[in-house]
Specification:
The chain has one helix at 60-63; strands at 2-17, 20-38, 45-56, 79-80, 89-102, 106-130, 133-158, 170-182. It has 183 residues and is mainly beta. Strands 1, 2, 3, 4, 5, 6, 7 and 8 form an eight-stranded mixed sheet that branches. A hairpin with a 3-residue loop joins strand 5 (89-102) and strand 6 (106-130).
Length: 183
């Protein structure tokens, strides 16, 4: 079976601070393609695959330019300020999974994913001249691209599904490993 979807997301912000006006608009069409292939002759085995595009809009506190002043300004306790020019993070990813079903609700699965993220947002701390003099300031910026990857192994089942007349004991286990890199 195959599922195809299309979603539109957008954000528009207007801000003004001491005569500095910023208008920021961004939007994205997010297609989703998801498929499941049931392996012929193996009624309890299937392969899932998904191709997705995601959009992570900045939070309001990341956009608001008004500063929060730190009483003990330093590199480890900076003032914080938003960035009205911040762009949303856009991610494109692929997910693959093999699933084997056991008994009434058990499953053993192995899955992997990779995602490419553009306009990755991180906070930077810089020393900047302000109306209060030279201050340490933390603000979010788009730093570039990143890649995120992961694998997951999962098993959950009742012992009675594998051993006849066994006690009603549930087994659950999961192993996940995720890693990422920033370009």
């Amino acid at each position: 079976s195959t599922y195809l979807g299309l979603r539109w997301e957008g954000i528009r912000t207007n801000s003004s601070n001491a005569g500095y006006e910023v208008r920021n608009e961004s939007s994205v069409w997010s297609p989703v393609l998801h498929g499941v292939w049931r392996i012929p002759g193996k009624e309890k085995d299937q392969i899932r695959a998904s191709l997705t595009r995601s959009y992570k809009a900045p939070g309001a506190n990341e956009l608001i330019a008004a500063p929060f002043i730190s009483t003990r300004n330093s590199a480890t306790s900076p003032d914080t300020v938003g960035n009205p020019d911040l762009k949303p993070e856009l991610g494109t990813g692929i997910d693959l999974a093999y699933e084997h079903y056991i008994g009434r609700g058990g499953i053993i699965s192995a899955s992997a994913f990779v995602r490419k993220i553009d306009d990755l947002t991180r906070r930077v701390i810089v020393e900047r001249e302000t109306e209060r003099g030279l201050r340490w300031v933390s603000m979010p910026i788009n730093i570039g691209s990143a890649t995120s990857r992961g694998i997951e192994l999962e098993a959950k089942f009742q012992l009675a599904d594998l051993v006849k007349d066994a006690p009603n004991i549930d087994f659950r286990s999961n192993y996940s490993h995720f890693w990422s890199s920033v370009d």
